[in-house]
Design a protein that fits this description.
Elements lengths: L1 H20 L3 E13 L15 H18 L3 E7 L2 H13 L6 E3 L11 E6 L25 E6 L5 E6 L4 E8 L2 E9 L7 H22 L5 E7 L20 H6 L10 E3 L13 E3 L12 E3 L2 E6 L6 E6 L13 E7 L13
Parallel strand pairs: 1-2, 8-9
Antiparallel strand pairs: 1-15, 2-4, 3-4, 5-6, 7-8, 9-13, 10-13, 11-12, 14-15
């Protein structure tokens, strides 16, 4: 009898080992534009959401509460304006008991707004050349990090100019064997402006080169996300009266023109209700209230590799945010990544 019980216990233990080795890895990622999140006592950038530190402190508390509610493993934080802001936000999260979070900041190259794209993560990024988070920008006519575009003057005269992606960050994470490379973007705003569209279109070309060289070229699967400031023609959002005048989203999804078809897909198509597909709130009369004539559109996006799309268990936008917190809403994606024994997901070719 003892021998039988011994064999039973061995089989139970072995089955538990098999189950654990085939378990999935749950991963929640989110991108959130926190709208000019400026640390108290730190005056950076020419745009200010609040004039007084008391109001700024309250905004940090509200943003921290949003993060506490959605509880992402990896958060792309857009429009924080300094390292001090990232540190303060992480400090508040730790006070709430969310001590797994760490903050990573890199200074943007937008000297006018000083808006940065930072990382708040429970997972430590991989180090590249001694840095956990990086940005690629050149103020000169660098053929890699700048792109020419046609510009029209007020008199209607055309000329050639160049631009880079002044607001972005790159960070690489290895999660249970999955090598994921993130490009957090904050592209030129105003999808109704001809000049802004020309700049954003050029920025998208630079972003594609960043993906190919600094993410795929290092053996990571790319995830492109953030405030793209444009509409996706392939995924209808809430406001059907607005459509893109550019190829920005399609270019970003097809980051490698040498390969057939697009490599990335927009998770927005997995949000069941079209009425829920909005990530930005344009308060036309600036009364900090939702009025019938205000504009709700989807200009924040998460673009995933096609290989990961079958493993998305949920995609949603967290709309429970007061207007005084931000004019954007977090976009959240849940993934169930197969274990190493289960997965059959090829890394992108270099």
């Amino acid at each position: 009898m003892k021998l039988i019980l011994f064999h039973v216990s061995v089989l139970i233990g072995f089955w538990g080992f098999v189950q654990s080795s085939w378990a999935e890895t749950s991963l929640r990622i989110a991108t959130f534009n926190a709208e000019i999140l400026t640390a108290p006592g730190v005056r950076k950038g020419s745009l200010q959401k609040f004039r007084w530190d008391l109001a700024r402190t309250a905004q940090f508390e509200r943003v921290a509460a949003v993060i506490e509610a959605i509880n992402p493993d990896v958060l792309n934080l857009v429009e924080v304006t300094s390292k001090e802001g990232v540190d303060l936000l992480v400090k508040i999260l730790h006070e709430k008991g969310l001590t797994d979070y760490r903050g990573y900041h890199v200074e943007s190259n937008d000297t006018f707004t000083s808006m940065d794209v930072a990382l708040i993560s429970k997972i430590k990024p991989d180090m590249v050349e001694g840095r956990a988070i990086r940005t690629y920008y050149s103020a000169k006519d660098d053929p890699t990090w700048r792109q020419n575009y046609p510009a029209k003057s007020r008199s209607g005269k055309m000329s050639n100019r160049s631009t880079g992606v002044s607001r972005h960050s790159v960070y690489l994470l290895t999660i249970d064997g999955y090598k994921l490379g993130f490009l957090g973007l904050h592209l030129k705003s105003n999808p109704s402006s001809e000049s802004a569209n020309a700049i954003r279109s050029a920025q998208a070309q630079v972003a594609r080169r960043i993906v190919r060289q600094e993410i795929v070229g290092r053996g990571y699967m790319p995830i492109v996300w953030g405030d793209i400031n444009d509409y996706d023609p392939d995924v209808p959002d809430r406001d059907e009266t607005r459509s893109t005048l550019t190829h920005v989203l399609r270019d970003l999804k097809n980051y490698d023109a040498k390969q057939p078809g697009a490599e990335l897909e927009n998770v927005a198509k997995l949000i069941p209700r079209q009425a829920d597909r909005y990530t930005s709130f344009w308060d036309r009369n600036e009364n900090r209230a939702r009025d019938p004539y205000d504009v709700l559109t989807m200009i924040d996006h998460i673009l995933l590799p096609k290989e990961l799309m079958p493993h998305v268990t949920r995609a949603f936008i967290f709309h429970s945010i007061a207007p005084e917190t931000s004019d954007h809403y977090p976009l959240v994606v849940d993934l169930a990544l197969p274990s190493q024994q289960q997965k059959n997901i090829a890394l992108p070719s270099r």
